[in-house]
UniProtKB/TrEMBL annotation, chains A, B:
Pfam families, per the entry: Cyt-b5, Mo-co_dimer, Oxidored_molyb
PROSITE patterns assigned: CYTOCHROME_B5_1, CYTOCHROME_B5_2
This protein's name: sulfite oxidase
Catalytic activity: sulfite + O2 + H2O = sulfate + H2O2
A GO CC term attached to the entry: mitochondrion
Cofactor section: Mo-molybdopterin
Family: Belongs to the cytochrome b5 family.
BP terms from Gene Ontology: nervous system development; sulfur compound metabolic process
CDD domains (alphabetical): eukary_SO_Moco
Protein keywords: Heme, Iron, Metal-binding, Molybdenum, Oxidoreductase
Amino acid sequence: VFTQEEVTSHRSLEDGVWVTYRGGVYDITEFVAVHPGGDKILLAAGGALEPFWSLYAVHNQEHVLEILSEYKVGELSAEDLKKQRSVQTADPYSSDPVRHPGLRVNSLKPFNAEPPSEILSDSYITPSAIFFKRNHLPVPRVDPGSYRLQVEGLPGGALALTLEDLKTKFPKHTVTATLQCAGNRRSEMNEVKQVKGLNWGIAAISNATWGGAKLRDVLLAAGYRPEAVSEDGDVLLAYEMNGEDLPADHGYPLRVVVPGTVGARNVKWVGRITVSAEESGSHWQQNDYKGFSPGTDWDTVDYKSAPAIQELPVQSAITSPADGAAVEGSSQEVTVRGYAWSGGGREVVRVDVSLDGGKTWQVARLEGGQDQAPPPPGRAWAWKLWELQAPLPPGAQELEIVCKAVDSSYNVQPDSVLPIWNLRGVLSNAWHRVRVKVR
Amino acid sequence: VFTQEEVTSHRSLEDGVWVTYRGGVYDITEFVAVHPGGDKILLAAGGALEPFWSLYAVHNQEHVLEILSEYKVGELSAEDLKKQRSVQTADPYSSDPVRHPGLRVNSLKPFNAEPPSEILSDSYITPSAIFFKRNHLPVPRVDPGSYRLQVEGLPGGALALTLEDLKTKFPKHTVTATLQCAGNRRSEMNEVKQVKGLNWGIAAISNATWGGAKLRDVLLAAGYRPEAVSEDGDVLLAYEMNGEDLPADHGYPLRVVVPGTVGARNVKWVGRITVSAEESGSHWQQNDYKGFSPGTDWDTVDYKSAPAIQELPVQSAITSPADGAAVEGSSQEVTVRGYAWSGGGREVVRVDVSLDGGKTWQVARLEGGQDQAPPPPGRAWAWKLWELQAPLPPGAQELEIVCKAVDSSYNVQPDSVLPIWNLRGVLSNAWHRVRVKVR
């Protein structure tokens, strides 16, 4: 039995790092070096884990408790435990915005949710309320008046820009760009072998029109020469989504939109931009969001051996009919709809659809969005919706509908999931399959 | 029976287009509009087809004779036929260069050949003599002294540059770039269903160091502003290959090297460059080198519906052991080697190798070329060679070795050939498979 005072005296690697959890005392000194979240863990040293685990809800998993139990050294004194419990921990998620009840929730705290896939392709522009939500933490509430964007690593020294500066000193540009989570369609990887991460369906992807200042314009104003800053990427410091202020869930007051890259690089609530010749050393750049061979497991993974996911590969999925649905045999025709997108500004040029599990293929009609001018070469940032109306195969009682897309570099989707399976469950882009009954 | 004079009087669409072939007379007026080679066919109007078919050897196919036979209107008079035959037709291929006897020849006239695949990966830089050869016609013999490169569509009017101008007025740049024929690995498509085109194995791909003037430098000298002409593409007007004058088979005196694009865009013996906002209307850009759905056949193909192949998708193949070879069981180990490459400057970041037909995978060691600096992001133009040394599975009598590559956009190769099959047999990049016996 230890007193709180004894626990509190262990707050560094030199003195040892002790924490408490539900009345247990744990010496986690040796664990600090292997903590996936890095030395942030030291913030909890000498005290209770509960407030931090409430904030970083990723810890609420059985295997985390198993790891912790290995480090148990004793119990906290009953008196100190009682004191600890009397401190009411406020729920850090209590100020999260209200969300649409139609969303399919993958985790509540932090909030991660996708739209119902059947309605995803009903609108070329995804309404902000149903645009997929991806959060690692509570949604920050940022005061727009005191907000400053710090820009560092500039020829003329650092810049601090107010929201007003961004809105008035630079022309507003709009870009229609699709964002996709690296973990979109992870559930299909989970079906073949368990991976780590949220169990996304096919709808961790959405399309919006973003408005804001060009990062290029800000860098030019900061002293960069025009030749040094390519405009091809269409990178935005976005303060608008679909014509309105950015919603809190999508980064209010400011997010970066880096068209053609994985959602993770489209940082929300951005506070600081550092121009650097070095790749960011952050956890999300170095130790996560990387792809590995299906033969790589948690014992052999070497994060340094793979590049960070930036551009995503070609993707498509069937949004309608839903898997397990029934289609009317009497109509003698089936309508198949979905989305298709590719990273790096590569345009989707064809979607093949099969009604027989991939034996024969028909070409779907692509829809690039009404009123959308054709994108310049290499700058096709938005998805295409697609549709195929095809006769029902005579006598068919069941259809196995499959889709696969081709982009302007003639990249194609892989046939099957297992050979692209990876321990993080990212980059899931095998042919999408649904089975439907003919009624 | 017609006289030569009567045939010769039919030399236009108005008067009808007549030709002779082996003593037959043919009225091909209606065929002119659908001739795959365009109105070049009118050059033969009023005369014999033989000299042209000797030049354009693609006509030496049974189905071409079948098409011709439909247009027969009579016979040439015996006397005129005798005269015609007395005209000796010189072989237009007689001045083609001497080639290395080790090449695997796909067609002699025009000359198309690939290196033996087993030696392809023995050298990071492919020696020019065994670099794959791809010709549509006899090899032009260009006099370097009178050679002029015409550059048109320029702000300051047309330019005519001598070879000396290109070598002395612009700095020489070198780029190591892999070229791949769109039809590489076409033979694997032929195995599942017949396609049109040369039956390439896995070696219609090679890697060389090209030296020449940057197209960008030429365009800047012609009055373009630096912002208008990106340097990211590293496009060369190359007069050197592997440190020597370009060989005749590879475009002497000048070829364009457009790194990251399909071989067809790396035009040899280039005579004229036109800067234009419009896509080239040429046969090779509009009516060939395009990808289609496996469901598209020659009755339904609409060339306008697909974009021209520019950047190629990710590719890899096993060069050793060869398909059907035997490996020594006593060594208890197998060494698998091959190449991997992707278009658009995307770097190959991983090659997975399977010894069991794709059920389990191991990661190969990549070799980027000795003395090669790492390429800048998005400008990885050269292939990687790779090698895996792996224990032989205990008791294995046969191995089905498979490889697949991943590029920096995390594009992957498709699992199988049939779903990417297309009537032209291009873009064949499914997992490569070889079967070997364990001895």
